[in-house]
Amino acid sequence: MKNILIGVCGGIAAYKSANIISKLKKKGYNVKVIMTKNATEIITPLTLETLSRNKVFVDMWDKNRSFEVEHISLAEWADLCLIAPATYNIVGKIANGIADDMLSTVIAACNCDKFIALAMNVNMYNNPILKENIEKLKKYNDYNFIDSDEGFLACNANAKGRLKDEDEIVNIVENYFLNKKIKKLLKGKKLLLTAGRTEEPLDPVRYFSNNSSGKMGYSLAIQAINLGAEVTLISGPTSLDIPEELAEFVQVKTAKEMCDEVLKRFDTMDIGIGCAAVADYKPKVCADQKIKKNTDELVITLDKNPDILYNMGLKKEKQILVGFAAETENIIENATKKLKKKNLDMIVANNAHNMRSSNNAATFIKKDGTMKEYTEKPKFDLAYDILIEISNIISK
Predict the structure, then answer these.
(1) What H or E segment, with its residue span, contains residue 277?
(2) How many domains does the structure of the chain reveal?
């Protein structure tokens, strides 16, 4: 398994490094840790030693060190270096060639790729000097930045500067090694993907929708990019970050808007994946003003929405077309009917109760009747399995 060197700086988010280390160890990675002296004021080296099962390095002049020149041996040992959290201070040091402690010295000697997960006060984050230092380092191919999230900070502000979620950081690390390992199975293929939910307005403040989080679709987008595809993502509302390196991102709300955008582009695509949770019906009339509570009952007439996947199946010529069937009962039977009706090459059948979950279990059903069952796993991992099956269909 690969060797990961983790640098922990003295920001309040230093305590989250314990969770990152634990998750990476559980996935089988070898982990060693360097802490700045300020970081040891927030979380103890003993905690990170226990989780990493390796000595934690802090002091360049440790009297108990081995006979190796440790900053050189650590730099040569690492397959990847992750600084999480990375403070304003460490970014400035690296960008300006300062190596005055163990972490900055090891980074200076490291030839492997470095991932820098930013976490700091919002005013520091917005400081133009930080931006200049980041841009300076981005000119070098081996420096990669994991941007901060927006959230509640230690300074009582709800703003940008919060360390990226630990699971997302671990996914970025895994994704890096996956990219180095796998062939670009979908290189040159144009892939159209729908994701998220749709919203059908009833009046200016109310709408009909569903529980889809968009995680499955966005995971497919990221993994397809990793496999070399040119990805167009047409998405309904989600709270997720837009994946980087998309060929095109199109934001929609209603099923009609999504259908129009899909059909504009589908003819030029090699692969289509309908992962969005599209509303089957919409209110026949959308009121201009908020509907008042004037009666004991409210009768709403619904009209049928366009069936996006069915229309893609009608237009399909050379494309591989894959759909999803989120069902609550008779999952395989209902999914098989959908596969045939919509002229799909494969359908991913799963339980609708997993819509809000980060995990999913599914059965892949192909048009030749073959099935493959996948037990529960992270949606990011299941997305990879789906795309491998699609590449197998293409190669036949």
Answers:
(1) none
(2) 2
